[in-house]
Specification:
alpha+beta, 4-stranded antiparallel beta sheet
């Protein structure tokens, strides 16, 4: 016969006793697994942060080296730019040289016998013009121009002189800044006009003599470029090169000491 155990399962002993584990061991194992995964993720994230910090520090160091190198070479770049500017300026000046000798020669040929000059000012630009007359007409001519001051035997002679000036090669326009006869006092019957005291350039010695101021413009001539400030730029570039070289030497010496 086969024996039968009639005891309840909770009272049985030996190998036939049922296991009394329950859900607690599974909870403990799951918690330990979660903690292990969290620790692993924390370690990986920390390693990544450290690597990124190392890369940032290395990039900052490389950037500082590149900035120092750029500062050291900036002066030489300025020298190259200034060299090109100077070559362009000299070329423009050579191309824009104005033949004043030819103009003076032609002026002497067309000068009428009833016109005489007391002042003559020739300038390549309004900035270079000496303040001897011309006024706004000279300022309106950006290129070479002549300012002629003198006297003539009346307004008709001045008009003839203006026409003659247009025959000079290269003249584009002739402006009349002034053309006037001497002021006469009422009741004065003399034909002579006395010049003002202290004015040695007054040529109006007769009542019919007209004083004029003319501006002869050569608008078609090349305008010479302004070279003001180039010397200062060259000096600044030279100082920058010296400072850059001295900084480089000092940095190299300090690195060698370290």
């Amino acid at each position: 016969m086969r024996p039968v155990n009639l005891l309840p399962p909770e009272l049985r002993s030996g190998s036939r006793r049922p296991l009394r584990t329950g859900p607690i061991p599974y909870i403990i194992v799951g918690t330990l697994a979660a903690v292990l995964v969290g620790v692993a993720l924390l370690v990986i994230t920390g390693n990544q942060v450290s690597e990124r910090k190392s890369e940032v520090a290395q990039l900052k160091q490389e950037d500082a080296v590149a900035v120092r190198e750029a500062k050291r070479l900036a002066a030489y770049t300025q020298f190259q730019t200034l060299h090109e500017q100077r070559v362009t300026t000299v070329t423009s000046l050579a191309d824009s040289r104005f033949d004043w000798e030819r103009v003076m020669r032609e002026l002497s040929l067309i000068l009428p016998h009833d016109v005489w000059l007391t002042e003559l000012n020739a300038s390549a630009s309004p900035e270079a013009a000496v303040n001897t007359g011309g006024g706004n007409l000279r300022n309106s001519a950006p290129g070479p121009a002549l300012v002629l001051i003198g006297c003539s035997t009346g307004h008709e002679a001045v008009a003839g002189f203006v026409t003659a000036l247009k025959d000079i090669d290269g003249v584009t326009r002739v402006g009349v800044e002034l053309s006037e006869l001497p002021a006469q006092e009422e009741g004065a019957g003399s034909t002579e006009a006395s010049p003002e005291e202290g004015d040695s350039t007054n040529c109006q010695t007769r009542h019919f003599i007209a004083k004029f101021e003319l501006v002869v413009a050569f608008d078609a001539a090349p305008i010479p470029p302004s070279v003001t400030g180039e010397g200062e730029e060259v000096a600044t570039a030279a100082e920058g090169a010296e400072e850059a070289s001295s900084e480089t030497e000092s940095s190299e010496s300090s690195e060698g000491e370290e």
